[in-house]
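Build the 3D complex.
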Amino acid sequence: MKRTLRQIAEFVKGRVIGDDQVEISGVASVAGGGSQDLVFAENETSLTNALGSSAAAVVANEASSETKSSKPLLIAEHPRLAFSRAASFLNPRINPTGTIHPTAVVHSDSTLGKNVDIGPHAVILEHCVIGEGTKIGAGCVIGPHVSVGQDCDVYPNVTIYPQTKLGDRVILHAGVVLGGDGFGYVRDPHTGKHEKFPQIGRLELGDDVEIGANSTVDRGALETTGIGCGTKIDNLVHIGHNSQIGENVVIAAQTGISGSVIVEDDVVMGGQVGLGDHVRVQRGVILGAQTGVPSNKIVRGKGVIFWGTPARPLRGYLKELATLARLSKKK
Amino acid sequence: MKRTLRQIAEFVKGRVIGDDQVEISGVASVAGGGSQDLVFAENETSLTNALGSSAAAVVANEASSETKSSKPLLIAEHPRLAFSRAASFLNPRINPTGTIHPTAVVHSDSTLGKNVDIGPHAVILEHCVIGEGTKIGAGCVIGPHVSVGQDCDVYPNVTIYPQTKLGDRVILHAGVVLGGDGFGYVRDPHTGKHEKFPQIGRLELGDDVEIGANSTVDRGALETTGIGCGTKIDNLVHIGHNSQIGENVVIAAQTGISGSVIVEDDVVMGGQVGLGDHVRVQRGVILGAQTGVPSNKIVRGKGVIFWGTPARPLRGYLKELATLARLSKKK
Amino acid sequence: MKRTLRQIAEFVKGRVIGDDQVEISGVASVAGGGSQDLVFAENETSLTNALGSSAAAVVANEASSETKSSKPLLIAEHPRLAFSRAASFLNPRINPTGTIHPTAVVHSDSTLGKNVDIGPHAVILEHCVIGEGTKIGAGCVIGPHVSVGQDCDVYPNVTIYPQTKLGDRVILHAGVVLGGDGFGYVRDPHTGKHEKFPQIGRLELGDDVEIGANSTVDRGALETTGIGCGTKIDNLVHIGHNSQIGENVVIAAQTGISGSVIVEDDVVMGGQVGLGDHVRVQRGVILGAQTGVPSNKIVRGKGVIFWGTPARPLRGYLKELATLARLSKKK
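Done.
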């Protein structure tokens, strides 16, 4: 889709210096930008590179507005954010048209909203509700009694267990499994066998949640596992039963969250983080990659970075590492 | 399904104090229990909460039998175990009825036992044997030459490679991959290329094994990978070629077991544990979350907890962590 | 397929001592070898075991050629390599025959080479090109605009996102997801919400790449994620957007590679390794299992082994561990 730079600037609430009628057809990296592409620069070096590139125009910050430029500049408070919004303006979601592939199996008891697309070989079991404008990819298996909101994107080969509820604009990447049984057993002391503790709770995802490929989120044992609005989860993440993940949380790849964990709003976790059962991570905490929080611990401090296993505030942990290195070299 | 408390008590081998004719339709958490629900209490605090809840009756231990109670009590030696059994009594597995969905592809050379359900778009390739009372979910791909026991639950989108053998009552959650090639190569010193070492062994799972969503277990290279009866495996776990996992082992999420590992009976592993090649973990060892055991090591000590990488007995490791913290603060 | 030992020796460029007309039908472990099996021995002990086994013949090294042997020996410079090649000679890939299962959905705009097999319920979306001799397993979902090379093996339930490009002889195990969106967001400082940074780049895999079950590799954000020829990746591995993995790299299970990482040729990584954003691992480095490399670091040293988080050269790290253990015991 082609837009003038002016149209883009209006959409992202920025202003143009230079020719605002230049036509833009896409966004690109500085290295890959072609003659109809918009690129962005966050500092002087990248601005210099951007101006030397083949790109049509550059999103830059207020400080760049004085720069002598051969290209039109789109000045924005947050260039990266404005650039991201420009990208979605230029490449809007392709709206589904209500196409149900003839090989899809949709139970007659289920209800599809307007303009729901269902891909080849997808299966919607009984008593599901799929909201308007949602796309279900090929090979997905959903239900029974699952509720999916509006304008969701469910990529291929996703499985959603019974009774799961999704908000609007949820994105599930390929291979995601939602609502599987939690990992809970009770050992019979006489036989030594592990018997299944009931895993009959539910799973609810808020609006605007995105979950990466092959991640798994379990249903509650007796209650409900929940993921708050706007939370973003990377690939191969595991979230256990009964856990409550807040809003606008960011969880990088391969992180594992055990059962009955509370993660408050705005927490950020690097990759391969592990949280034990009944951990509570308070609002705004940052957990570095591979951090491990033992069971029942509370991690506090908005904006405080933790690292290591067991998790320690970064500054103290780095000091410990330095101490160990020094002592080790002495001998 | 409704049952009287007395019927439940008989099933779980407990005894009722109070009205044993009260009707129970389900189990619940104390917080969520409704007027026909059974809840359980393991200590005084939870008993007080349970008695103050809306639940119909409470499973409690012998010590609680003296408690003055407005609700009928189901007294059991192990309340959590009795509660779990009550749950399965009230919510029994729904037996399959022998329904093969018309979109399923079942090879004519394969043999299905009585009352096998096959979901939409599932694929059973040639020379498979599926035992009586087993359910195969939508989108599963099984075979050829796979043997699945009786009363198994195979959730959607599971893939089982050729020649894998499953016991009875095995539960495979969505996205599980069984019997894939092990990760074994031989480097040609002249070309620097990695050539495939043969991965032509098999995989066998005992009875009552449960494997969580998106976990993967590889076939043996030349021999057989094995998982013993009653072993429970969480989501996103990896088990490598030739490994032998014992009986009643518990393996939490995202743990990785390399090739040719021996895990003896009754071992418990937390999440994100890693075992190197040719490790042996002896009977009853407990490995804390994120523990790493280097290749070729033997870990011994029934009931001994290990933690850290490389794995150390917990007590010593905690002492090391304390020592490091102390030394680091000195400077 | 039966071959004489002589035919095998010619194929693997070794020589036979003893009866070169013995018929061999397969390869096996020493313990499992039957009367028509070839086994291999890398040292004296295993040679003794091999000669005492039921196997028909033994692949052994030059040093073994003087050994008095009741069985014919196939002498090779690298017995394990010769054995692996013998295995592929005896169990060659079964070539596809151009069979498209009637339940597969292949878009008419897509182009299939000669002898492409497409399994039941597989889906090939529009504008894909599948190379000659490639097999696509049941339940796979591919495309649109995906290019798959010749003689590839795509196991069941694999998902390949749009515009991904695969070389020849690529092996993708079940549940692999290629080309999903990278994990990139920009936070709006006013609303606190994470908005999607464009994930519109591509993913390219070279020839002879093998990827294990349920692993995920993301497309680039604006550029291209790349995996070089001959690189082998185990199960449940994550590779993030924009990362460039070199040739003949080996990556064991559950390793996570963040965004914009460069891994040069011949690097070897153990399981559960984690690399932060913008890390560079130089040619020939070896990263032990569970090693963590923080963002922006460069790891150098061909053949040097690193371990720990943050990654340190093995020798120094072991010294640190010993120092800590010693100091901890003092008190």
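The CA atoms of residues 158 and 175 of chain B lie 5 Å apart.
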